[in-house]
Amino acid sequence: MFNIIVLEMTYQEISHHRLVSQKLYKTTKSLPQEIVHHFGAMQAQDYAMAKWAIGSRCDAFEAAIEEAINSAQIIRTHILRPTWHFVSADDIYWMLDLSGPQVKRIILSDTKKYGYDEKQFDKINSNIEKMLSGNNYLTRDEIMQGLNIKKVSGEYVLSPVLIMMYAELDGLVCNGKMKGKKNTYTLLEERVTKPPTKLTKEEGLAKLAKRYFESHGPATLLDFSWWSGFPPTTCKTAINALELQLSSIDIEGQTYWFGNQIFHENYLRESVHFLPAFDEILISYKTREASILLEDQSKAFTNNGIFKPVILENGKVIGTWKRTIKKDHAKIETQFFNETESSKKEILFEGIKAFENYLEMKIVIE
Prior knowledge:
Distance between the termini: 53 Å
Mean pLDDT: 90
Helix content: 40-55%
Number of helices: 17
CATH superfamily of the domain at 90-191: Winged helix-like DNA-binding domain superfamily/Winged helix DNA-binding domain
Strand content: 15-25%
Shape: globular
CATH topology of the domain at 90-191: Arc Repressor Mutant, subunit A
Largest sheet: 5 strands, mixed
Oligomer: single chain
């Protein structure tokens, strides 16, 4: 049986409780790698904004987060759906074992028409391993040159993105140290020591589900399915395997799961957050009405999955923002969804101070 927590929680309050589970209240001090470990995986295709996703949940400067990534305490790689994610070094291998085979099948179904099957990718990976062996760090373009991948009419026959994604999902490569402003790749096993034992698929799924609901709850089975990339039937099995390790509550006929922590009323306080594009507060749920009104969703994200940086007041998205880094300051531009928010800008802009501290740079609001 699952724990059924008896408390007063309405559908409208879900977003407040997610601020707690997603560590946006900063109730405890955390290192950047501890934030990533808490989430299991944090979406990270927009590298600059993804670092702020970590920074908005701890008191680390951007430079400290960059150092955690460069020193391989945090790994940036393709995993889950697939897309770029930050993953803790402690979690990288069991998560690759769990999701890698599934996502590789997706890639192979796309590349079959180009004549690339598993054997072809194994040959490519063997050559990549030779190039990177000995703690070498190379950009994607440098690797493509080394592979002598041919172009037709100026275009690669097979996307370099897919080539490197397959190598990541195979557990061969991960992000290396930044080379100026360019991302590099290096061998994962030279970056992070491989553990002596493996989890079974069932153990891995249960661990992933527990991590998701503790860091994202209250959330539904379909939310977990969307975030993890596994089908609902598989996700249901994972939830059932957790037994007393999760709690649940039914709201308006829908079951929401979360960790065994009790949500206290004093958590529900006034708050303003300026959050990055693709932040877990929105992107990690199948439906997002708990955090943003249906009529405002097209202003915050597109149908093809492009998410803007958002402004949250008390857990609800009330506008979007963008930042432009200048020589000696960062310029912030805002767009609120209605005049009510515009009229209280001074109060709302208190929420940008955390970003100013993180950048260690003056913020100018326009």
